[in-house]
Specification:
Length: 287
């Protein structure tokens, strides 16, 4: 077997000019299975040179700034994506099996999704969208940013409640200050925060609502208050994690069975609170 590291003979190097060119060009990320000539070189943001093919750029994408604007084949085309992302993206621009995304880390997949949408590489758009749609709840903030930026409202609505406890700073940082997203998120959180505060105010010790003298109400409040989280943030977390029903599950209502006034007031208040959550706008409706 001939080692690939052995120096080539001068006669081998000079025998064919096109061969020499291809040997000096960066290789195509698909490797030896790709027999297309490299006639375009991309330069990633981290300085990696990657071989590409103009025909594939035209056939597999609608947005690469290479074919129209670049005429020289010798100059690398600088792009803002890193080498890993570009390499992966180019593998989606060949007529061969596309790479599986499952073994990759989330950051790489979201970077691929971003590049695929930017350059409109439909094969990579579809693969990354399918992955994110399936795994969005594991990466709620990144998924929300992706969904808002590239207009996938179903994903935004699927993960928005899981971002309720994330800080505003984190939302701004990960969305790269996408004002549309930040504003919608702020309004979305306000609805839930308002419900959490109202639940807490009603049941917190020292904030009792006592509208008539009744021996049952104090006992009822005492039992119910014990299961309500002590702060509005924690109440919000319960709503986000387990849903409003967990909070409003009225296991102590039996205490009020002898007082129609208290029971009706409590049933009405719970129904009203449920309604506030059920009728809260979806995230996509706030965009
Ligand atoms: Zn190739
Ligand atoms: Zn009563």
């Amino acid at each position: 077997m001939i080692s690939p590291n052995l120096p080539k003979l001068a006669s081998e190097l000079n025998s064919d000019a096109s061969c020499l060119t291809s040997q000096e060009s960066p290789s195509c990320p698909v490797g030896s299975e790709c027999i297309l000539p490299v006639d375009l070189v991309l330069q990633s943001s981290d300085g990696k040179l990657i071989g590409a093919h103009r025909t594939n750029m035209e056939h597999f994408s609608d947005g690469f700034p290479t074919c129209d604007s670049v005429t020289s084949t010798s100059e690398p085309v600088p792009l803002t994506e890193d080498g890993e992302t570009l390499t992966l993206l180019l593998r989606f621009m060949h007529k061969h099996k596309y790479p599986g995304l499952t073994p990759m880390d989330a950051a790489s997949i979201f970077a691929l999704a971003e590049a695929a949408e930017k350059y409109m590489v439909y094969s990579a758009m579809a693969s990354s969208h399918a992955y994110i749609e399936h795994n969005c709840k594991e990466h709620p903030v990144l998924s929300l940013c992706y969904a808002v930026k590239f207009d996938y409202p179903a994903i935004a609505d699927a993960v928005s409640s899981l971002t309720l406890l994330v800080s505003l700073e984190e939302i701004q940082r990960l969305s790269i200050s996408n004002h549309r997203l930040v504003y919608a998120w702020f309004r979305y959180r306000e609805v839930y925060l308002s419900v959490a505060t109202s639940i807490l105010d009603r049941y917190a010790t020292g904030a009792r609502v006592k509208e008539h003298d009744c021996p049952f109400w104090d006992r009822y409040l005492k039992g119910t208050a014990a299961k309500i989280p002590p702060t509005s943030t924690e109440t919000l977390k319960s709503i986000a994690d387990e849903g409003i029903e967990k909070i409003l599950d009225d296991e102590y209502v039996q205490i009020l069975k002898s007082c129609d006034t208290c029971r009706d007031r409590e049933t009405g208040w719970r129904a009203h609170t449920r309604k506030r959550i059920l009728q809260a706008p979806k995230f996509s409706e706030l965009l």
